[in-house]
Amino acid sequence: MSPQDGLTPSQVAAFNQDGYLIIPDALPPAAVAALLCETHRLLEEDFTLEGHPLTKFQTGGDDGQEHVGDDYFLGSGDQVRFFLEEDAFDVTTGQLAKPKERAVNKIGHYLHVLNPVFANVTSAASQDTAFDGILPVAPIAHSLGFRDPRCLQSMIICKQPEIGGAVPPHQDSTFLYTDPPSAVGFWYALEDATVTNGCLSFWPGSHKTAPVRKRLMRRDDRTGTHIVDNPGLQFPKDIKSDEADLIPADAEDDTSKYVLGEVKAGSLVLIHGNLLHKSEKNLSEKGRIIYTFHVIEGEGTTYDNKNWLQPPAQGFTKLYA
Fold first, then answer.
1. How close are the terminal C-alpha atoms of the chain, in Å?
2. Domain residue spans of the chain
3. Number of H helices, E strands in the chain
4. Radius of gyration of the chain from Cα atoms?
5. Cβ distance 111 to 121 under 8 Å?
6. How far apart are CA 158 and CA 261, in angstroms?
7. Is the pTM of this model over 0.85?
8. Do 295 and 146 contact (CB within 8 A), yes or no?
9. Which Pfam families does the annotation name (predicted)?
10. From CA 312, how far away is CA 35, in angstroms rounded?
11. Which positions ≥6 away from 31 have C-beta within 8 Å?
12. Beta bridge partner(s), residue 297
């Protein structure tokens, strides 16, 4: 695969069949080191508890309904903010029971613009030599059929040792919805992701049979979020599913259908917005830091003004100038 050509035909076919694609060595070792170094600098230097609302990142709970929705979260679309791990708190006192650097669940959601190190991943012309040899993002998006790919959010997810929370089965388009659905996740491992520290698991092919039934939307009073029935299209236009083949909502957590996605640091995982995927809690002594951003189609789709994430004044970031 030539870096400027995007994905090979066989890679595109694999993504279309399975709904995800693992690309080893998408980041050179120097880039992995630079991103990890910047992550630790953010945690140690930029993150302070002074004035922080102690917003915890909630992944949906057992019923799928409990999600973070305070102003600190809702206003993070053009900021770099820090969200805490639920199990980092002492249940009796409500105070942090871990050092602040070991308490963060994720950092988001505008790293791809505001942080010059992480901006190198989506940049077509990075000046940082550590990123020489990185697989360019825009040609990959073009390979997947995007005409006007837009990066709408970016996150560091820390999956902290011993307390990194489990993420139940979900579809990214539930949270980053366009009508019709178009989201694709670009997920980069900055440390080895293994079964012991909470690697991803995927239901192969579920992007063709799992409708986007629900959406995370802002409440009408704009004070928080809630999960509601999806009133729009449930599949991208190029996917036609027979009603009889659809995965029932109550079967999405069937563990026998998921396959592990263990990857080495530097790997890129592409994830279709309709694909069911999950990760388990990290009970090990080793963390699992990753960087992820999501791309949506800017041409021929509608972005709802009730989506939890709203575009900045200049709009979502174009991957093509």
1. 23
2. 9-318
3. 6, 18
4. 19
5. no
6. 17
7. yes
8. yes
9. PhyH
10. 24
11. 120, 121, 130, 131, 133, 134, 266
12. 149
